[in-house]
Amino acid sequence: MIGESYQMELRHLRYFLAVAQHCHFRNAAEELLVSQPTLSQQIKDLERELGIPLFERVGRRARLTQAGETYRDYAQRALDVLEEGQSVLNEFDDLLRGRLTAGVVQTVNAYLIPKVVARFASEHPEVNLKVEELSAGEIENRVLGGSLDVGVSFTPTTRREFDVEKLFEEQLVLVLHPDHPVAKRKRIRVSQLSNERFCLLDRSFCTRRLVEECFRSGEATLNVAVEMNSVEGIIATLEAGGPPSILPRLAVTSSTILKSVELQAPTPARTICVLRSKGHAPIRARDVFVDQLKHQVAET
User: Fold this and answer.
1) Which family does the entry's similarity section mention (predicted)?
2) What is the DSSP letter of 180?
3) Are 61 and 27 in contact (CB under 8 A)?
4) Helix, strand, coil shares of the chain as percentages rounded to 5?
5) Which of 14, 183, 186, 252 has the fewest CB atoms within 10 Å distance of its CB?
6) What is the pLDDT of residue 275?
7) Do 148 and 137 contact (CB within 8 A), yes or no?
8) Residues near 299 by Cβ (< 8 Å), separated by ≥ 6?
9) Model-level pTM?
10) Torsion over CA of 87, 287, 136 and 75, rounded to 10 degrees?
């Protein structure tokens, strides 16, 4: 029970959340840039203050107890609120400073975000920018939960809880090695691809689900030969002569080898948006980041 001797500090919460994320004291210590004995002692101090174990030690692993699972949500919310408060105070300073956390879906992160991050970091060195590559569902949950200041994702299924700003319409195309028989065509109907074998992102990606819906609508059979979990991996596989893929058009712009062919009947496409939670506190760093993102879209 927490009493008069209560001495918990913010670092205890940060250390606790790091161990909870990694389920491993050594890995968490490396991220936090502290020694493992120091981290272990801080967690023991926190458990003593709270009067209950937060972790079960299983060999070198650390697993949250039921109490730890419950406490994690409160610890994360506490840090999120404090960081939001710091961001609001930073608005009183003419110099752009503070911390900004953005979540980006992989297909956009692969080809659009690097130039935005490079420019932002160069022009605003006092801002600690963290970009996380996440699924669309994770981005929506964390924008609403407050652990992300901004998300770059697809149009959410429910718009009522978000401020949604459209960035651009993303079209998916057939991507092939130049030696492929179809590579010289400008466009092809989806129904003509039933005999083709593809290298695609796995089903955890919205891109894959959009491709499957496209083939259903086009009354074509989708044959998957290879599944991968990164756009970069698929592009490298295609450049090495692997089976064709279906990817966002802009994802192919970095390759000097591959060819893209427009898909028709139907043409798979989706809207890329900036997501903020409704009623969010004003953060100038976020506004500048979004402005630079829109500028990069216009130049692409």
Assistant:
1) Belongs to the LysR transcriptional regulatory family.
2) S
3) no
4) 45, 25, 30
5) 186
6) 95
7) no
8) none
9) 0.66
10) 0
